[in-house]
């Protein structure tokens, strides 16, 4: 999302260290990114993470995994496909975004660590793990604490949250029907895996 935002100052924060390191590396080393990740490389990196830099763990873990879930399983386009086609597409998309994120300051931290007393007149976009799904995160997310944090952050800023649903004191300001690729978001009655993506803000 941050590559679509047009403003003078942009800061991207995420708790996932390897994701942040990948984006920081891509800003300066676009030509050094590989074209694709083959399955044998994926398995080698997954089993020996201590041997690789964080940016490369981010590249392999996200760009070569099904649904971009960090090391959530090697992505293939068909049962016997070991061409790295999926990862090649993901890496191409990353490269297309680089020119639009050159001036973004990327920081590895969680929302609790943001100094709200120093953040005023910002637009804060939050892409949290959707409640009730595994999405990209495997650890439990402190939803109730996050809701209270948004209320405080909204005093001096505009805070926007992507989610399927939020508590009653939040309002939906935008929504769109989408199809998700993650099986963890799928119910047995949902054959087409359709979801309504929504954007919420706090009702002050």
TrEMBL record:
Pfam families: MethyltransfD12. The keyword Endoplasmic reticulum does not apply. One of its GO terms (biological process) is methylation. Coiled coil: none annotated. Keywords: Methyltransferase, S-adenosyl-L-methionine, Transferase. GO terms for molecular function: site-specific DNA-methyltransferase (adenine-specific) activity. It comes from the Bacteria. InterPro entries: MeTrfase_D12, SAM-dependent_MTases_sf. The keyword Oxidoreductase does not apply. This is DNA adenine methylase.
């Amino acid at each position: 999302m941050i590559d679509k935002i047009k403003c003078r100052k942009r800061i991207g924060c995420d708790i996932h260290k390897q994701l942040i390191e990948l984006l920081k590396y891509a800003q300066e080393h676009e030509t050094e990114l590989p074209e694709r990740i083959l399955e044998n490389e994926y398995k080698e990196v997954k089993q020996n993470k201590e041997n690789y830099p964080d940016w490369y763990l981010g590249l392999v873990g996200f760009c070569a995994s099904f649904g971009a879930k960090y090391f959530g399983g090697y992505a293939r386009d068909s049962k016997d496909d070991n061409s790295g086609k999926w990862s090649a597409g993901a890496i191409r998309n990353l490269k297309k975004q680089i020119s639009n994120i050159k001036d973004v300051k990327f920081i590895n931290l969680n929302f609790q660590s943001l100094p709200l007393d120093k953040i005023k007149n910002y637009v804060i976009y939050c892409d949290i793990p959707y409640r009730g799904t595994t999405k990209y995160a495997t650890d439990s997310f402190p939803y109730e604490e996050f809701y209270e944090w948004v209320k405080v952050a909204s005093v001096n800023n505009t805070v926007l949250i992507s989610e399927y649903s939020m508590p009653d004191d939040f309002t939906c300001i935008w929504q769109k029907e989408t199809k998700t690729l993650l099986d963890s978001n799928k119910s047995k009655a949902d054959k087409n895996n359709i979801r309504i993506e929504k954007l919420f803000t706090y009702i002050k």
